[in-house]
C-alpha cells in the first residue's frame, strides 16, 4: 500500500476529516504538522504550490486538499491509488 503524506495543523477540521477518511480506508499515513514543525511549511509550499492545509500526497502524487481527496474517493479512484 502506498504511503500517504499529509501536511496538517492542529486546528484544521479538514485535516481531521482527511485523516479519518484515510484511516477508514486502512491507509498508511505520515503526518507532518506545520504548527509543530514550522520549517516544513516551506517544504509544503515547494511540493504543492499551496498554502492551505491539508495538503495530501499519495506516494509522490499531489492529491490536493480534503475536498480533492473526498472527490477522488467518490469517483472510485482512491483505493486504486492506495494499492
Taken together, the total number of domains comes to 1
| Gap between N and C termini | 5 Å
Architecture per CATH nomenclature, i.e. the level-2 architecture:
3-Layer(aba) Sandwich
- State the helical fraction: 40-55%
Please give the number of β-strands: 4
| Bulk shape | globular
Sheet of most strands: 4 strands, mixed
Strand fraction: 15-25%
What does this structure look like?
The protein has helices spanning 13-24, 40-48, 66-74, 78-82; strands spanning 3-8, 28-33, 55-58, 61-64. The chain is α+β, with helices and mostly antiparallel strands and 83 residues long. It has a single domain (4-82), classed as Glutaredoxin. Strands 2-1-3-4 form a 4-stranded mixed sheet, with helices on both faces. A hairpin with a 2-residue loop joins strand 3 and strand 4. One of its GO terms (cellular component) is cytoplasm. Residues 4-63 form the Glutaredoxin domain. Keywords: Cytoplasm, Disulfide bond, Electron transport, Redox-active center, Transport. Has a glutathione-disulfide oxidoreductase activity in the presence of NADPH and glutathione reductase. Reduces low molecular weight disulfides and proteins.
Amino acid at each position: 500500500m502506498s504511503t500517504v503524506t499529509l501536511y496538517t495543523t492542529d486546528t484544521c477540521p479538514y485535516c481531521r476529516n482527511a485523516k479519518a477518511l484515510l484511516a477508514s480506508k486502512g491507509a498508511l499515513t505520515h503526518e507532518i504538522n506545520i504548527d509543530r514543525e514550522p520549517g516544513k511549511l516551506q517544504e509544503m509550499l515547494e511540493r504543492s504550490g499551496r498554502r492551505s492545509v491539508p495538503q495530501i500526497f499519495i506516494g509522490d502524487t499531489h492529491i490536493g486538499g480534503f475536498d480533492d481527496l473526498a472527490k477522488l474517493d467518490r469517483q472510485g479512484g482512491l483505493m486504486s491509488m492506495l494499492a
